[in-house]
Design goal:
alpha/beta; Aminopeptidase; 2 domains; 8-stranded mixed β-sheet; 14 helices; binds ligand BES; binds manganese (II) ion; binds zinc ion
């Protein structure tokens, strides 16, 4: 991360731009030096996310930042407002804003949201170029008086950690597939684990074979690049419960012999976004003093066609002994997750959450801005929904409709790996549910929100890191 978040009592001399929060009614902060009528004449009404840049002859540029209805202020509004400020002040290195009078949101929550929004909007994938992509922002200063200083400092620190985690997930998913294969992400996981006090185990192809992970091996069969499974463990003192996170890490999904058309392959370097979110989440837990024990599984392999590739009609045997007949090699995510979920169950967690860019069907159902959530335990799904609201990473529940299970029936194996043409989120979830036993489990299908085409608020073009902040919030708030 290039920019840092600092806190101060008053606007520092070094500030190049100063954001001034303005509600849609009531008094305009005097520091702006403009009346509401004057602002309105420039088309600025204080609507949430609106900005008006006011260059000054001397001193820093002022930026009026709309926060909408002051009585209905939420962390979401503040996160968006901070992103709008950073984008409006995109030429400036040091951007300062006051959190002194933001009613209704406590200082720490407000500061975390502002830090996240500002940093996430400043994200650029550096790229592999002579002149890397950059942003001007080097420092975001959050100012508040004595009374709120402690809360603001705490929130700024938390927001820095969660934004850095999202940066990591974005970087991993934006990296081209030759630069980010299964071995690369496993190396990265070891590095993250060392830096953040996690236990880490990396399993290679032979070890996966010995463990009976037929899903991982089957998907990997067409690839010259070996698979990796990574288990990360975070163990706090006196844990308040144990959750397992399982991430789909298909490093490139060509579809295998059920080859995707060219247009369908271009984004498939990001088919490891679930594993990226799990790794990034794990790396943030210690800094945030998480009280929950968390085990993370990264299920990493390419899905490629070749003379040795998995064939249609083949039957794979997974870690838990169940089998699947392959009817489409492009439905590979569920095959690697099957082994991951089976292993997660063996650890005896209180809950399992998997996260995967699993189906185009989820994009059809919910569009690109929200993930699907399906589970066997409503209380767990509700916890995830609460974390979704807190982090503004939208999810929407779809049902685990048991009567659709017959769509997966096979004559030669325990199930087929695809259902019919309809209800793809439900049938893929039913497939996954075969591997979780009685453990409370929920599945996040992030195919839609894994990436955005262009900058949009705190989302920056490319991989979004979706699910990272949501899973961090979930882990922090989990209690048995
Ligand atoms: N990785 C894809 C799903 C995907 C598509 C994610 C587009 C993000 C953007 C997944 O492995 C896949 O190919 N799913 C198939 C399943 C089908 C064959 C049952 C799909 O959705 O078409
Ligand atoms: Mn696929
Ligand atoms: Zn895939």
């Amino acid at each position: 991360m290039t920019a840092i978040v600092t806190t101060a009592r008053t606007t520092p001399k070094s500030a190049n731009a100063v954001g001034v929060p303005v509600a849609n009614s009531g008094a305009v902060p005097r520091s702006l030096g403009l009346s509401r009528a004057a602002l309105a004449a420039h088309g600025f009404e204080g609507k949430a996310g609106q900005t008006l840049v006011l260059p000054a002859a001397t001193g820093p540029t002022q930026v009026a930042v709309g926060i909408g209805d002051a009585a209905a202020l939420t962390p979401q509004v503040l996160r968006n407002a901070a992103a709008a400020l950073v984008r409006a002040a995109s030429k400036h290195a040091v951007v300062s804003t006051s959190l002194a009078d933001l009613p209704g949101v406590d200082a720490a929550t407000a500061a975390q949201a502002v830090a996240e929004g500002g940093l996430l909007a400043a994200y650029r994938y550096a790229g592999i170029k002579k002149t890397p992509n950059t942003t001007a922002l080097t420092e975001l200063v959050l100012t508040a008086g004595e009374a709120r200083a402690k809360g603001v400092a705490t929130g700024a620190e938390r927001g820095t950690v969660t934004a850095a985690a999202a940066y990591l997930a974005r970087d991993l998913a934006n990296t081209p597939p030759a630069h980010m294969n299964a071995r690369h992400i496993a190396d990265k996981a070891v590095e993250v684990a060392k830096a953040t006090g996690l236990e880490v185990e990396v399993f290679n192809k032979d070890q996966l074979a010995a463990m009976g992970c037929g899903g991982m091996l089957g998907v990997n069969r067409g690839s010259t690049e070996p698979p990796r499974m990574v288990r990360l463990t975070y163990t706090p003192r006196n844990p308040q419960g144990h959750v397992a996170l399982v991430g789909k890490g298909v490093m490139f999904d060509s579809g295998g012999l059920s080859l995707k058309p060219s247009d369908g392959q271009i984004a498939m370097k990001m088919d490891m976004s679930g594993a990226a979110a799990v790794l990034a989440t794990m790396g943030a837990l210690k800094a945030l003093k998480c009280r929950t024990k968390v085990t993370g599984y990264l299920m990493c392999t390419d899905n490629m066609p070749s003379g040795s590739a998995l064939k249609l009609g083949d039957v794979l045997t997974f870690r838990n002994g169940k089998t699947a007949e392959i009817h489409n090699t492009d439905a590979e995510g569920r095959l690697v997750l099957a082994d991951g979920l089976s292993l997660a169950v063996e650890d005896g967690p209180d809950a399992i959450v998997d996260i995967a860019t699993l189906t185009g069907a989820c994009m059809v159902a919910l569009g690109m801005k929200m993930a699907g959530v399906v589970g066997n335990d409503q209380a767990l799904v509700d916890r995830l929904r609460a974390s979704s609201t807190a982090t503004d990473e939208s999810i929407w529940q779809l049902p685990l409709e048991k009567s659709y299970r017959k769509l997966l029936d096979s004559n030669v194996a325990d199930m087929r790996n695809i259902g019919g043409p309809y209800g793809g989120v439900i049938t893929s979830s039913l497939f996954l549910s075969e591997f979780v036993g009685d453990v409370p489990w929920a599945h996040l299908d992030i195919a839609g929100p894994m990436a955005v085409d262009g900058d949009d608020g705190w989302l920056s073009r490319g991989a979004t890191g979706f699910g990272t902040r949501l899973l961090i919030d979930f882990a922090l708030s989990f209690a048995k």
